[in-house]
Amino acid sequence: MKQLQQAGIYQGQPNSLTFFRWKGANPPVLFHLGLWGPQTTNPHAALLPSFQELESLEIHEASFDDSAAQHLAKLPKLRRLTISPVDRYQKPGFTKMQWSYPWLPQVENRPQFTGKALASLSALPLLDFLDLRDARVTSSELVALASFPKLSELGLPNPIDAEGLHSLLSCKHLSAIILGNREVTASEIELLAKLPSLKRLTLRNARLSNETLAALAKLEKITAITIYDCGLTDAHLAHLGKPPQLTQLELVRNEIKGPGLAHLASFSLQKLDLMFNNLSDASLHHLEALRSLEQLSIAYCTAVTDEGLRLGILQKMTHLQLLELRGLTSVTDASLESLSQFGHLKQIGIREDKISWESVDKMRSAMPNTRVFK
Question: Domain 272-374 adopts which CATH fold?
């Protein structure tokens, strides 16, 4: 364990990036492990079979080659395996992003998993989540996915073509796809529409044309779409296709100011996440037309202030059940009266703001049927 922790220590940083999560007691067992950066190498992979209770493993730009996958295959309870690029997202004027490390060096030509590692990983009997966005996999190598009996969520580094689609069709339980860290084309989206069980699509750190956004309408069975850190603006929302069964839309870490939300009024959304966008007090009224929403997040939209809450626009959205206001650093105790008008909610999130615990207590007294999460 000390060796893994040491591998996550980088010059000038106070703490190791290696992340451990434990559960139970007497003694606790390690169920989640996160490994970051090129200092984590094959000898560290050889240590992993010591953690037989491990259920989730994240590997972000480690220097692992295909031989390291043989050690991962000795983790009988592993259900989630993430092999993805490091998140280097940063936004001037916004709160520092958790789990984002823009300073971490990018090492070209470091060892990486390839499609050959899939043969080893197929020995994991419980694996249902596999993100390969930091691997090098060809379409022909995806045929190995047929050996993963429980696979339901998959992240891919390579563009999807007809050959790759044929292999994806062999994954009978595949319900979620993650694409990104490259350009995603409209033709790929059209191929995904052929997957019979696909319900969720995540496009992360991807380059998306207007044609690609429009093609989303062809995903007739999709219920949830996440477009994460893709540079979307209000103008892009005019091209966003509407899948007929879509109820959840997450547009996290983009550049949306508000006027483009008018294009979502016909979407019948139940959940909308606008975390880390450019909404302000002046743009809150653009949310009023979204009358089907039950869950709304404007977390870390730091231009929303006490003044915006006093407008009463969000309070009028009585169809909401959950409202996330986390990270609104200009919301203070001056909003106590405004916040106390959200008693119709099941939950309101107000962490990482400037609301005192005294005001939280007053909110809870005024809103006994609402969970105030601070």
Answer: 3.80.10
